[in-house]
UniProtKB/TrEMBL annotation:
<dbReference type="InterPro" id="IPR036388">
    <property type="entry name" value="WH-like_DNA-bd_sf"/>
</dbReference>
<dbReference type="GO" id="GO:0003700">
    <property type="term" value="F:DNA-binding transcription factor activity"/>
</dbReference>
<dbReference type="GO" id="GO:0003677">
    <property type="term" value="F:DNA binding"/>
</dbReference>
<keyword id="KW-0238">DNA-binding</keyword>
<protein>
    <submittedName>
        <fullName>LysR substrate-binding domain-containing protein</fullName>
    </submittedName>
</protein>
<dbReference type="InterPro" id="IPR036390">
    <property type="entry name" value="WH_DNA-bd_sf"/>
</dbReference>
<dbReference type="InterPro" id="IPR005119">
    <property type="entry name" value="LysR_subst-bd"/>
</dbReference>
<keyword id="KW-0805">Transcription regulation</keyword>
<feature type="domain" description="HTH lysR-type">
    <location>
        <begin position="1"/>
        <end position="60"/>
    </location>
</feature>
<dbReference type="InterPro" id="IPR058163">
    <property type="entry name" value="LysR-type_TF_proteobact-type"/>
</dbReference>
<dbReference type="InterPro" id="IPR000847">
    <property type="entry name" value="LysR_HTH_N"/>
</dbReference>
<comment type="similarity">
    <text>Belongs to the LysR transcriptional regulatory family.</text>
</comment>
<keyword id="KW-0804">Transcription</keyword>
<dbReference type="Pfam" id="PF00126">
    <property type="entry name" value="HTH_1"/>
</dbReference>
<dbReference type="Pfam" id="PF03466">
    <property type="entry name" value="LysR_substrate"/>
</dbReference>
Length: 300
């Protein structure tokens, strides 16, 4: 019975959204999961419920009749469940997250303290690393990554600033000695501080963009550090005049404010998408994770 209710709920979501993709965007399940639920329901009932084309999804006559009866009933169930919302303040359990070091430093400090104050009985475990890992195989409830590193069957929830920029910077001492830059190609003449990813690849070339023009530059790596754990070492080297660094703007912002680093080619800094909290759409969402997701959404 519980599986039937789940499939019925997903069918209603698809009809209301007008398609599998739109339902997936507005909900917390992947399009493939929604499609599978509707197919199971159609098989069980022995009738087609949806007309599917490449451009649209519309209910059949049987689907429309079912929707007319089920929609109000599911709304009533949702209302009834809302009555017990007050008890969510007393949730307990453990929330396990796998996150990049940048998220642990720049995003979570603005979110996690408030969440933990609101839910004092929830324990939180953070595994901060820059490896691309299977969060589920490591017994994590969810992970945080950029959208280009997410699997298609994962549900993604925006977390933190929606746009970031890679900033380029150097100390005043370095720029006074070796000259200031006026164009991205000038970087090829300078000593640079690079990150190396866990898979061994260098964070290179550096990309710059202005007025639709994109320029990629391969810097000379005077110093190379492992991305994540040794990033503070790279920043310190830039502060001491070793070379030019290319890193998240938010990471370097405190040093811009106190004057220890000087922005380089600021009008060429390229923006990119912010981070997402992601988790499996095929697994039960544990209450601590559900509370964290709702807290993120309410904090936007």
């Amino acid at each position: 019975m519980s599986n039937n209710l789940r499939d019925i709920s997903m069918f209603v979501s698809v009809v209301r959204a007008g398609g599998f993709r739109d339902a997936a965007r507005s909900g917390e399940l992947s399009a493939s999961t929604l499609s599978g639920a509707v197919r199971r329901l159609e098989t069980q009932l022995g009738v087609r419920l949806l007309h599917r084309t490449t451009r649209s999804v519309t209910p059949t006559e049987a689907g429309l009749l079912l929707m007319t009866r089920l929609g109000p009933a599911l709304d009533e169930i949702e209302t009834a469940l809302g009555v017990v919302e007050v008890f969510r303040e007393h949730l307990s359990g453990t929330l396990r997250l796998n996150v990049p070091v940048s998220a642990a430093r720049l995003v979570l400090p603005k979110i996690l303290p408030g969440f933990m104050k609101k839910f004092p009985d929830i324990r939180v475990e953070i595994d901060a690393e820059d490896n691309i890992v299977d969060v589920l195989s490591l017994r994590n409830d969810a992970g945080i990554r950029h959208d280009d590193k997410l699997d298609q069957d994962m549900i993604a929830v925006p977390i933190g600033p929606r746009f970031q920029r890679n900033a380029t910077a150097a100390s005043q001492e370095y720029l006074d000695r070796y000259g200031r830059l006026s164009h991205p190609r000038d970087i090829e003449k300078h000593a640079c501080i690079l990150n190396r990813f866990a898979n061994g690849a260098l964070a290179s070339p550096w990309e710059f963009e202005r007025d639709g023009e994109v320029i990629c530059v391969t810097p000379k790596n005077r110093l190379t550090v492992r991305a994540g754990g040794a990033t503070d070492l790279a920043v310190n080297a830039a502060l001491e005049g070793v070379g030019i660094i290319h890193l998240f703007e938010d990471w370097l912002e405190p040093y811009f404010e106190n004057g220890r680093l000087e922005p380089v080619l600021a009008d060429w800094w390229k923006p990119f998408s912010g981070l997402y909290l992601y988790y499996s759409g095929r697994r039960f969402v544990p209450p601590p994770l559900r509370a964290f997701i709702d807290y993120i959404k309410s904090s936007e």
